[in-house]
Design brief:
36% helix; elongated; five-stranded mixed barrel; disordered C terminus; alpha+beta; 829 residues
Amino acid sequence: METANLRKIIVRAAIALLALFVLTGVGTGIFAWTYYDRVRQTLPSVQKLQTYEPSIPTTVWSRDGVKIGELFDEKRYPLKFPEMGSLVVKCFLAAEDAHFRSHGGVDWQGFLRAGFHYITKSGTRQGGSTITQQLAKILLLSRERTLERKLKDILVAFEIEKSFSKDEILEMYLNTIFLGNNSYGIEAAARNYFRKSNGALSLAEAAMIAGITPAPSAYAPTESFEKARVRQRFVLDQMLKNGWATKEEVSLALAEKLKVHHAESPNTLVAPYFLMEVKKQLEEKLKLPGLLSQGYKVQTTIDIGLQRQADDAVREFSKLHENRKGFRGAVRRHGSRFVDPLKTLLGKPLDVSKEAERAVVVDIFPSLDAVAIVSQQGLGLLLLEDHRWALNTASRSKERSVLDFADIVRVGDEVHVELLDRGTPRRLERSGAAFSELQKYEKFFPQGTAYKGIRYFKLTDTEGVEAAALVMEASTGHVLAMVGGESFERNEFNHVTQAKRQVGSGVKPLYFALAQDAGFSPASQIDSPPIVIGDWKPENYSKEFTGRTTLRTSLIHSFNISSIQIFQALGSPKVTAHFRKLGLPWPEADLSLALGSGNATLLQMVQAYSPFANAGRLSQARYILGVTDRKGNTVVDANDARLVVSAVPGKPDDMVLSPAAAYVSVRMMQDVIRLGTGTRAAGVPHAAGKTGTTNGYTDAWFMGVVPNLVGGVWVGFDDAQKSLGAEGTGGKMAAPLWRGVMMAATKAYPSQGWKEPQGVTNVRIEPESGKLALGGGGLMVPTVTGSEPGAPGARNALGLMGFEGTTSAQDDLNSGGDETDTGSLRSLN
């Protein structure tokens, strides 16, 4: 009886326990299904990948088909799968997913292995995700590390495998993955690290790139070459294990010496100042959606050959005037406690695309005229003979002559340097002091750094004379060349578009041309009496009064007093209204404008001169010819009004001069180059132009034209108070630079010369008096018909007296920081 009851109790307990298990299992199953169903319903649709377009750079091109820049958030060059090198594909499969071709989205063996590793190694993670799962995470899911996201990885991976072929999955993955060094996808990585396409990579190079994937910030060879080598060995071992490489191939790959590069910015190689202006216009005026990611193609006006020659001309100019440069000073000063900062510096990767190489001054040897430095790449010396420019400039600020380096650098200074190709002077060959001192610092370099011996460097943080140049096609406004300064790497400030400086006598042709349409001619006679207006006592550059002269002679020799008389005769309201039409919105009723006290950018002045090369019509600058999208569809065409740079306020009247007045002005400006202040610009075919120099020699200009081209150059310091010195005139400094730029321009865009338009009458005059030459002889000059000597509408400015009054000229001048010995406003030649 008792046994039977016990048996019943046991059976009932077993049934109850079984029921509990069943109910628990059913509940767990229901919960799991509900959780799975909820997660499944939140999954992104893989159909998005059908139309997936990866982020790619917007490319900027010259008018002659050369790529000059890229604008991007992610630097990527998408490829079709057949364009991907088989070697680099195998390396990625070996590194990330050797069973990719056989699994259905999840490698369960690898997944379980990673889970076991996680449990047995106290929570350390080992990669178990397939390439398909990684693609799901990169393109469709978040990067959070949770169980739910891992489940989503698996589910989305299954859907991807059902919707796409293996090659399509690899194509998306290898185009998308981030590989450090500003590289997205294998093509960008190949170009950035090894300066070659992905299909040209060696096994050693492909394995190093494939090894970066798990942690680009740690494994990129530009960040840690040793860590990258460890990962490279892992990939090569996997290649061998899977039979995708032989032992001999792996051995050769391990022995290969690799040269790794930092990502190179194409935006600083050619026309960087111009490119920044293009980018500004794309962002601010065209407002293209996804400018940095949608792969637009921007066709620009720049002529790459002419641009390079203009760059060369400015560089040669800078070398010519290197003695005017000064050393800007140390980046940091560590003093005697420089050892720890030096160790930190040597541990940093060198990226010359972003910054010049840094070095620390560790000793100064006055008797050897040398400074010992330790740079990011090795040991080096600075020599006195390579730094005369820095010493000469420093001497100007001291009471004594500077004789050694101690006046510009100190021990512990951190400076920017550049490697020189030079031999060792005899004085250093005879003395080993500097070399033995330097060798003490070899031990501070990271292990594995190749010792390259003691080399020679020069300081690079210079500040000195800046120069800018601009060439524009007059008939279209297309900017053909733009040099915004001596070096974009050192100074990104664009002196063509951003620097507003006093224009000096470069302004004179603008209102002399207006005078041609107002009855004056090159033969017009002008009286030049002394002028005194308050404290303002304008005078000629020579400080001599010329007496009666002609308008032509006044322009050729840039006489100031007669120029003021012409300005006054035309009337300030009329002249300033004309200036505004030219894009120079200067204040009315200020006679100092006659001598160039107004401020303008080089771009504004080039536009203002464009009517001389364009039969009286004003050209407005353009940088962009058109924009297409990644599929080749036109987004912005050449007729889009937004492409006008619009330095001219409002909507100006295109015809600002009669063709006859423009032609007569050109002929007078040709004489400026032939006989006057612009002789150093001679040699450019058909050239006409004008010098400009401001008070205190702070700015030097040359503006000029040839048929259908207008060009201008500016020279000065960034500090508008700083003088170029007595040699710093438009004729002596700016004119030779203009000649160099425009010689290149006329070779690229040759012409047959100036064509005389209708409305011009040629007369023979006496050069000095401007009177008609009787009985032959004299000088033949063109005039606007009706203004020639003796014509009813001809005007002179005779019988003028000196006048007194008030003007804001002096206040305007002082606010600009100019100064003269006499306290007078003198716009120089």
